[in-house]
Amino acid sequence: MLTHDDILSFWDNLANYAGFFHRQLHTLSYLQDHSTFLLSTILHISARHATKQEISGVDLISVVLERHILVNLWPRILMTNCRSVQICQAVMLWATYLPEPRPGEDDLGWSLFGHASEQVDRFSILHGLLTLV
C-alpha cells in the first residue's frame, strides 16, 4: 500500500525534473484539497519513473493511478466541462510524460496539449473581460 512517506518520495522525485508546478506552493495538502486530478497525475508520473528500489510495488501503483485518471478523472473533467489552472497543469504534465505512441496510434499528448491550450485561452479571455468591467 502507498504510504505518506512513499508519496513524499514521489513528490521529491518528480519535483526534481518537472516545471509545471511550484514545489512550495503545490504541497501535498494543497493538492489534496484543490485538485485530485493534478495530485493523481503527479503521483502516476512519479510512480512510472521511480525504481523498485525507491518504492516497492511501484509498477502496480502506476497502473492503478493511470486507470483512475483514464476511467474516472479525465472523463468527468470532459463531461462536466471543468476548468481550472490545476487541470491545465495536470493535462500539460500528463501530456509531457506520456509514452511515445506506436506507429498508427493517435498521439494523445498532442490532444492533451490542445485541450490545455484551449483552456488557457479561455482563462485569458475571461480574465480580460473581468478586468474591463
> How many H/I helical runs?
6
- Number-wise, the strands total 0
SS-based class: mainly alpha
Number of domains: 1
Largest sheet: none
In one word, what is the shape? globular
Strand content: under 5%
Give the end-to-end Cα distance, rounded to a whole number of Å: 51 Å
Provide the succession of SSEs: HHHHHH
The gyration radius over C-alpha positions equals 16 Å
Oligomerization: single chain
Low-confidence stretches: 129-133
The helicity comes to 55-70%
In round numbers, the mean pLDDT is 78
Overview of the molecule:
This protein is an all-alpha fold. It has one domain. The protein is 70% helix and 0% strand. The protein is built from six helices and no strands. The longest helix is centred in the C-terminal third of the chain and has 25 residues. The C terminus is likely disordered.
Key terms for this structure?
133 residues; mainly alpha; globular; disordered C terminus
What order do the helices and strands come in, and which of them pair?
Blueprint: H1 4-15, H2 28-34, H3 36-49, H4 58-80, H5 85-96, H6 108-132
